[in-house]
Amino acid sequence: MPRGFSSNGTEPDGPSAPPIDIVLLIDISGSTGGILTTVRDKFWELQNEMSRLSPTSNYRLGIVCMGRPSFQKENNYISIISDLTRDIDAAARPFFKIKDITSPGNYHMGHALDVAINQLSWSKDPNALKVIFAIGNGRAFSGPGCTKAIKEANEMGIILHGLYFMAYDNRVEQEEWRDLATSCGGKYFPISLREPPIVFEKTYDNDLLLEACRMINTTYMPYGANGVERRDAQESLDEDAELQGENPFEARTFFKATALYQGKNASWDLVDLYLNGDLNPSKISRKHPPGVLAQMTDEELLLHVTELSYNRGEYISIIKMLTTKREEHMKNMRDKMLVYRYGQSFFGVMNRTLVEMAESKGYVHEY
Fold first, then answer.
1. Are 293 and 175 contained in the same domain?
2. Which end of the chain is more exposed for a tag (fewer CB within 10 A), N or C?
């Protein structure tokens, strides 16, 4: 099965709060044109919603896509874009690289569920919240193995919510998606890709926010064989968000200052490694990136990383200060934002459902 970017390295232990494993199972076949754009436009805003949970959530994200011919017949036209990981950039980069094209494709939900349930590294914690959001349309009970997959999901405690994309009116498909969701302890939602119009009024210095986003990237110091590639991926995701528009770029910037992002890049960034208390300069290979680390003594390396960590703290403080102003403004606009944040669009359904499920596990949503 094709796999996307790997987070590379052992993920740190999370907090004592119940783990939250979320998998997006997305139909990107010809009948769902526009769904990639919609999900990616709201991707960072959804990560911000997870960052509002208190205590800080032990949250991992996985992505599986289906229905694209390039995924190959031998894989049943299904691809694991990212296994479950706390490294959200590692999940996001290959997802944002998928071309949003309308091409004829096919898949069987039974095959897709089998991959999502049995080939991803779901939490073993019996208290974990484990959820699949199936997003798309077509026959939900098509192909072999769907009944078996439902049984396995129930045995593993995996909930499935069906977000049916209303590209056309097919009652048979809609009822199958409803039955699939309820069979896995979830809910059925007919969704529209059209978001309700909303104007985000700026109650903060937007130029300062964007500058802080660019400057915080200068505090990342790559190491290891994949370090430069991961730094480039970070910058590429910033560029993708900026091309999407001001709101997605701001959402990504806000997310980069949260506890769900900071400290999660220790597999390739020396500053996060240092802040996690795991930096031993004498054990850092000087081969990668070539010519940079090789010129530093252990003492110089530690001093440089320490300085970068202070700089990063300053930029994070700026972003958090602006975040506080934005959050206060959004709370004051609660009634106006209600349809946008909890309506029947993709974002509204995902947002509302994630919050309700997290609260059922004892989390508090700070909004």
1. no
2. N
| Spatial contact of 186 and 299, defined as CB atoms under 8 Å apart | no
Looking at the structure, tell me whether residues 51 and 174 fall in a common domain.
yes
Shared domain for 273 and 361, answered yes or no, is: no
For 161-175, how does the pLDDT look when each residue is reduced to its tens digit (9 = 90+)? 999 987 777 899 999
Sort strands 129-136 and 19-27 into parallel, antiparallel or unpaired.
parallel
For residue 176, what pLDDT is reported? 93
Q: Which range is least confidently modeled, 19-33, 37-51, 56-70, 230-244? A: 19-33
User: CA 194 to CA 30: how far, in whole Å?
Assistant: 18
Q: Integer distance in angstroms from the first to the last C-alpha of the chain?
A: 39
Coil vs helix vs strand at 240: helix
CATH number for 119: 3.40.50.410
pLDDT at 86: 94
Tokens of 84: 């479950």
Question: Residue 90 CA to chain centroid, in angstroms?
Answer: 9
Q: How many CA atoms lie within 13 A of 339 on its CB side?
A: 8
Indicate whether 6 belongs to any domain.
Answer: no
What tens digit of pLDDT does each residue of 149-161 get?
999 999 999 999 9
**DSSP bridge pairs for 364:** 54
Is there a domain that residue 7 lies in?
no
104 and 172 fall within a common domain: yes
> What is the enclosing helix (H) or strand (E) of 59?
strand 58-66
Q: What would the pLDDT profile of 190-217 be if each residue is shown by its tens digit?
A: 987 666 555 556 666 778 888 888 899 9
Angle between helices 43-51 and 246-256 (to 10 degrees): 30
Domain containing 274 equals 206-332
Question: Within a domain: residue 359?
Answer: yes
Number of structural domains found in the chain: 2
φ/ψ (deg, to 5) at 345: -80, 170
Contacts by 328-335, CB closer than 8 A, 24 or more apart: 328/203, 329/201, 329/203, 330/367, 331/367, 333/201
Q: Which residues contact 90 (CB under 8 A, 6 or more apart)?
A: 5, 6, 7, 8, 82, 230, 233
What would the two tokens of residue 66 be? 């289906």
Q: Is residue 12 part of a domain?
A: no
pLDDT digits (tens, 9 = 90+) for 66-95: 887 778 788 888 999 999 999 999 999 999
3-class state of residue 364 by DSSP? strand
User: 91 and 50 in contact (C-beta within 8 Å)?
Assistant: no
User: What pLDDT, on a 0 to 100 scale, did the predictor assign at position 104?
Assistant: 59
